[in-house]
Protein: Pyrimidine-nucleoside phosphorylase
Amino acid sequence: MRMVDIIQNKRDGKEVSKAETTWMIDNYAKGEIPDYQMAAWAMAVYFQGMAMTEIADLTMAMVETGHQIDLSTIPGIKVDKHSTGGVGDKVTLILAPLVASFGVPVAKMSGRGLGHTGGTIDKLESIHGYQVERTQEAFVQQVKDIGISVIGQSDDLVKADKLLYALRDVTATVDIIPLIASSIMSKKIAAGSGAILLDVTVGSGAFMKNLDDARILAKTMVDLGNAVGRKTVAVVTDMRQPLGTTIGNRLEIAESMAVLQGGGRPDLRHFIAELAQIMLSLGGVTKSIDEILTHLSNGAALDKFKQMIEAQNGDFDDLLNTPTHETAFSKVVLSPKSGYITDFDALVAGHLAMRSGAGRAVKSDRLDMDAGLRIFKKIGDQVVVGDPLFEIVYNKADFDAELESQVMLDAIVIADEKIEIKEIVEII
Ligand code: URA
Structure:
């Protein structure tokens, strides 16, 4: 086989066979196919798309390029969860302990943030002492002992994706539905859980900017999961504004703690409870929204979070006593007019938080765990001129808070008519 023929066939809109796909991915992972040929193939996929059988072949070929996690010694249906990326997305931090508090085991590998999106692993590392790297044995044992572990993705899981994702990142080939679907699902399949909840975000802060694309991505991933015997459900969720009221590592941990203590915004609590209901049902447990919310108010979910942090060497008491750390600088921005918030652009807010120090522009950037954004008004909220809209907290002396505030203000729309949005747009 020759890579040039595979590229040419894809370029000309012909289907690529399973044997060709497997050969290509296997040899790419071994370093025998150069990046320039893979990049040409990815761009051909952008223009020609892929048939469902090709996407399934690609996904399974990618799974085969790394280690697969064996969770079979943990009793019960293990349920995984994955978000396609968002701004202020702290769902895993609340949802995982909440689900585990009902006895459904959660063995989850999460990622780091890049660009405007944050990563659960970075947020957890803002907890003093918390270890995100565990051996597979320790990971499995912890889930057996306490029903929950959230760790960083192991290096030898889906090697081809690591290479291909880095290549796509620099060749304008990230936002291609078949490549996103195979990238995410190969990692989920290799991670070993029997059931998967996918949070497919849509809106300015997400990869998918419109509902039609989000639906196609969601359906593609659900079909991929179900085809290999993983019960898979996708929830399309609104990411036109940041999730919750904070963006930034420690800020989001503190907000998650507040929700786990029965506080936080009611809409965030309710959204997480709805996701928990789906995840629990994938794990064979039926609970009402009220029963689920009770585990946020009675300390059951908080206790699971505490157990997980302590099992991974984190200092829970420090977190409880000092949820956030003061930064050297802060700037509160007030509303220039009265009305209702109808837009609070998640992409702009994500970029602002990144530049404040909370995120990375490139992989090697160091994070400021305490920097970020506090949001006081969200879409649907009423504001009166002079009300605080948001606060930027930061430590970098060269951060231009005046300019950044103006850019954010320009991306917030205040109108006369109230609009309502629902976090869950549809379930697929
Ligand atoms: N997240 C992934 O893991 N892969 C993609 O391709 C896009 C988002």
The chain has three domains: 3-49, 79-319, 329-415. Residues 38 and 164 are 8 Å apart (CA to CA). The radius of gyration is 22 Å.
